[in-house]
């Protein structure tokens, strides 16, 4: 029995038995042609890089390590044919086919199969492409202004491949670089809810939300939470300076917090509207009420009302416009008969109310004084 090899063989075999023909010894040479079975079609295993990130290039090389020509390569993704075009390129040489994705995205993830067909058979090999994406935010968070006792839930949410772990931390009040993991939070894949229940002023501070999926650098963002107690907003006492008719008067309203607040001015219970001689100039942390020039009608009770994060405070002061004395009723000369009663009216006006004094003189000498208050 003559066994065959995997390749075509052409061998000579010698029959060493001697045969005597006509007295001549001959050695018989026998030539065998042995045709091996056809070569088996085979693909060399391949794979994609293990850490392919969105935006990067990815490629896989499919190599035929056995098989008779002609060789026909075909690429599939999740069982469907891939055609060369756009971001995907297929480059095939004689016994090699390369699949190139110029810029991968999330949709590039999948199972990629190289199928090889030859004249004597076929083979295929499948490799997964797992695209990774760095963490990215998918919602917005913002600073919070709260009153003591309020409840609030703040959702911080991120995406990525794989889904990142999201966690809330609070900045330390004593060490600027230190953060403390917040216990009052609910964490799920790709998200975390900060839970502030029955808030107190000590809940105020800077809160940092961090997302990390070990692809690229972690991402983080910070918000400021400010909780005002019921008595935490106070107005610094103020008053008008001595104010004289026709001059300018200014009052400044500011708070003890030094934070941005909303201001409102009231006179005798009614909102002050800007008009000819009254102007309100408000800034983030203070407000000036300017009255120029002063009139008698400007006297009254002025109230500054401030509001911050739902908390309101007010302060009231009085403006008394000083008005120089002026005659309201001037007396006139009177002719009277001896023994007759007469009344002489003399009345002045001003602020404060002036005192009216009668003097009786004879010549240059005053002999009596009568004081009358109005």
Largest sheet report: 5 strands, mixed
Distance between the termini: 151 Å
Helix content: under 10%
Beta-strand content estimate? over 45%
Number of helices: 0
Which fold does the CATH topology of the largest domain refer to?
Immunoglobulin-like
CATH architecture of the largest domain: Sandwich
* Fourth-tier CATH superfamily name of the largest domain: Immunoglobulins
Give the low-pLDDT segments: 1-37
Strand order of the largest sheet: 4-12-14-18-17
How many strand units? 32
Structural class: mainly beta
Mean pLDDT: 84
Radius of gyration from CA coordinates: 51 Å
Keywords: Immunoglobulin domain, Membrane, Transmembrane, Transmembrane helix
GO molecular function, one term: cell-cell adhesion mediator activity
Pfam family, one: ig
Organism: Araneus ventricosus (Orbweaver spider)
Describe the protein's architecture and organization:
The chain has 374 residues and is an all-beta fold. It folds into 4 domains: 42-129, Sandwich (Immunoglobulin-like); 134-228, Immunoglobulin-like (Sandwich); 235-319, Immunoglobulin-like (Sandwich), CATH 2.60.40.10; 324-368, no CATH class. The protein contains no helices and 32 strands. Strand 17 and strand 18 form a beta hairpin. The chain is rod-shaped and about 160 Å long. Mean pLDDT is 84; it is low at 1-37.
Could you give the topology of this structure?
Elements: E1 9-21, E2 24-34, E3 42-44, E4 52-53, E5 58-66, E6 72-77, E7 80-81, E8 88-92, E9 96-101, E10 110-118, E11 121-129, E12 131-137, E13 144-147, E14 152-161, E15 165-171, E16 179-181, E17 185-188, E18 191-196, E19 205-212, E20 219-228, E21 243-244, E22 249-254, E23 262-267, E24 270-271, E25 278-282, E26 286-291, E27 300-308, E28 311-319, E29 321-329, E30 347-351, E31 356-362, E32 365-372
Parallel strand pairs: 4-12, 13-20, 21-29
Antiparallel strand pairs: 1-2, 3-5, 5-9, 6-7, 6-10, 8-9, 10-11, 12-14, 14-18, 15-16, 15-19, 17-18, 19-20, 22-26, 23-24, 23-27, 25-26, 27-28, 29-30, 31-32
């Amino acid at each position: 029995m003559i066994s065959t090899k995997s390749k075509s063989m052409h061998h000579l075999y010698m029959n060493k038995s001697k045969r005597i023909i006509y007295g001549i010894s001959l050695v018989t040479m026998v030539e065998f042609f042995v045709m091996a079975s056809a070569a088996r079609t085979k693909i060399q295993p391949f794979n994609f890089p293990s850490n392919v990130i969105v935006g990067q290039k990815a490629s896989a090389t499919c190599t035929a390590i056995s098989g008779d020509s002609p060789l026909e390569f075909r690429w599939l993704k999740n069982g469907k044919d891939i055609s060369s075009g756009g971001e995907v390129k297929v480059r095939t040489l004689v016994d090699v086919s390369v699949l190139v994705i110029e810029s991968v995205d999330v949709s590039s993830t999948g199972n990629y199969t190289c199928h090889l067909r030859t004249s004597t058979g076929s083979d295929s090999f499948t490799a997964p492409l797992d695209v990774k994406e760095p963490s990215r935010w998918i919602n917005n968070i913002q600073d919070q202004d709260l009153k003591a006792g309020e409840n609030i839930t703040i959702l911080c949410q991120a995406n990525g491949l794989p889904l990142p772990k999201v966690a809330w931390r609070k900045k330390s009040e004593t060490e600027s670089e230190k953060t403390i993991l917040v216990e009052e939070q609910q964490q799920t894949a790709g998200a975390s809810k900060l839970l502030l229940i029955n808030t107190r002023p000590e809940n105020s501070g800077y809160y940092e939300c961090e997302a990390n999926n070990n692809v690229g650098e972690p991402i983080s963002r910070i918000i400021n939470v400010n909780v005002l107690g019921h008595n935490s907003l106070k107005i610094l006492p103020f008053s008008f300076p001595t104010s004289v008719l026709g001059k300018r008067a200014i009052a400044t309203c500011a708070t003890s917090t030094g934070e941005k607040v909303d201001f409102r001015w009231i006179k005798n219970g009614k909102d002050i509207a800007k008009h000819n001689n009254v102007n309100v100039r408000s800034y983030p942390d203070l407000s000036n009420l300017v009255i120029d020039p002063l009139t008698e009608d400007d006297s009254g009770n002025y109230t500054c009302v401030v509001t911050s994060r739902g908390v309101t405070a007010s302060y009231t002061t009085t403006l008394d416009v000083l008005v120089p004395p002026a005659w309201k009723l001037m007396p006139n000369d009177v002719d009277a008969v001896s023994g007759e009663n007469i009344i002489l009216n003399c009345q002045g006006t001003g602020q404060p109310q002036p005192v009216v004094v009668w003097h009786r003189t004879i010549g240059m000498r005053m002999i009596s004084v009568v004081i009358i208050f109005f």
